[in-house]
Amino acid sequence: MTTSAPRRAAPRVAAARLRTGRWWATAVATLRHAWATLLRVLAPLTQAFSTFGVAVLVVAAGAWVAGLVLGWLEVLVAAIVLTVALVAAIVFVLGRLRYDVTLSLTQSRVTVGDPAVGRLDVRNSSARPLLPSVMELPVGRGTAAFPVPRMRGGATHEEIFRIPTRRRSVITVGPVKSVRADPLGLLRREVTWTDEQELYVHPAVKSLASSSTGLLRDLEGRATNDLTDSDISFHALREYVPGDDLRHIHWKTTARTGTLMVRQFEETRRSHLAVLLSTRAQDYADDEEFELAVSVCGSLGLQAIKEDRGVTVLVHTGSLRGDHHTRLLDDLSRIEAIPSRSKLVDLARGVGSSAASASVIAFVVGSKVTPSELRAASARLPVGVTVMAIQCVPGANLARHTIGEVGVLTLGRLGDLPLALKKMSDA
């Protein structure tokens, strides 16, 4: 009997422990759920506290503790004042905002210097009035603030704004955020209403007339000194060797000489323009030089696309899209001159893989590129390709000189580009 009693009590103890464990687990889960619910409800409030508001909250809590523990009446008065200010700020920023906000741009693409206008429409979608607030609109690196007055149910408010386009870039507009803050700046509540949009500020370009691009135009292809066994331009005859295409046998000459003779052709190359734009900051004296270079690059590329010729634009960071004029200008809007160890000769090495079919290659560089760098870069290009260089020096007179077999144009204004290309083609 002595040993059987503990054995009978053991299952009861185990069951009691199991019930206690289940109760404890249920209590912990309930507390966690209640805490998560409380944090979710208070999230708009806790996120709304500014740095100043957090400081006031800490000081108020300390004042309450010090006033109650030490019995300091002055500290208690300060604690009451700070608490009243915090409660008033909470009441001011709380409340559900029911806005319908629309951000629209009249154009998503403009040329540098052209006006760009946007519109912000705010509508109170609720039936009750809404307190005044402020709509903040990030535009590039800045932020525009538009005060929204007290709006009755269903009312609308419109703001028209202009976006500065003094510089080529891609400007991010938005997202629009409504801001409600108390007068003391203790709390600041933000709600995002729209997605961000992009405004492309394209570089200025110059339209090139056909008469000024004789060097670049060759829609029917041009003959080269490279001989091939299959092409369009007939060059000469040679003796047949095993493996030659029988369709190229010249039977009249074969009958006359008694030896199989086949036609030999000059290889023709379809016109394909490759523009090598240096984006290395060390190649330019200032930003004005780089902007002129980007405009020259865009002018050459657009003319090639307009004449339905192939165009490849290479920069130090890769290649740009040359299949459509809008995509090319969009890519040119993004590029920046950045310091780089990669030099012009490194850019020229990429022609073999990215623009192997190029018939004309144009370097577009700044004033800091030396003749030796141009000579070294041109030496890395395929043999038999026409090469020219345009050195952008704002304010300089139009001039032309040669470095080895490379014709170099010194360009001071974008408007001189058609005349410069005409001089190059006439040379």
Written overview of the protein:
By secondary structure, this protein is of the alpha/beta class. The protein has helices spanning 4-48, 51-70, 73-93, 251-257, 287-306, 325-334, 344-349, 351-354, 371-378, 417-426; strands spanning 99-105, 109-111, 116-124, 133-139, 142-148, 156-163, 169-173, 177-181, 188-192, 197-202, 222-228, 233-239, 261-269, 272-277, 310-315, 318-320, 360-366, 386-392, 399-403, 406-411. The chain folds into 4 domains: 42-94; 99-202, Immunoglobulins (Immunoglobulin-like, Sandwich), CATH 2.60.40; 210-214 and 271-426, Rossmann fold, CATH 3.40.50; 226-269, no CATH class. 35% of the residues lie in helices and 29% in strands. The strands form 5 sheets. Strands 16-15-14-17-18-20-19 form a 7-stranded mixed β-sheet. A 4-stranded antiparallel β-sheet has the order 5-4-8-9. Strand 8 and strand 9 form a beta hairpin. Helix 2 packs antiparallel against helix 3 (73-93). It starts with a helix and ends with a helix. The chain crosses the membrane at residues 48-69, 75-95. InterPro entries: DUF58 (IPR002881). Keywords: Membrane, Transmembrane, Transmembrane helix.
Describe the protein's topology.
Elements: H1 4-48, H2 51-70, H3 73-93, E1 99-105, E2 109-111, E3 116-124, E4 133-139, E5 142-148, E6 156-163, E7 169-173, E8 177-181, E9 188-192, E10 197-202, E11 222-228, E12 233-239, H4 251-257, E13 261-269, E14 272-277, H5 287-306, E15 310-315, E16 318-320, H6 325-334, H7 344-349, H8 351-354, E17 360-366, H9 371-378, E18 386-392, E19 399-403, E20 406-411, H10 417-426
Parallel strand pairs: 2-10, 14-15, 14-17, 17-18, 18-20
Antiparallel strand pairs: 1-3, 3-6, 4-5, 4-8, 7-10, 8-9, 11-13, 12-13, 15-16, 19-20
Helix pairs in contact: 2-3, 5-6
Keywords: Membrane, Transmembrane, Transmembrane helix
Pfam families: DUF58
InterPro entries: DUF58
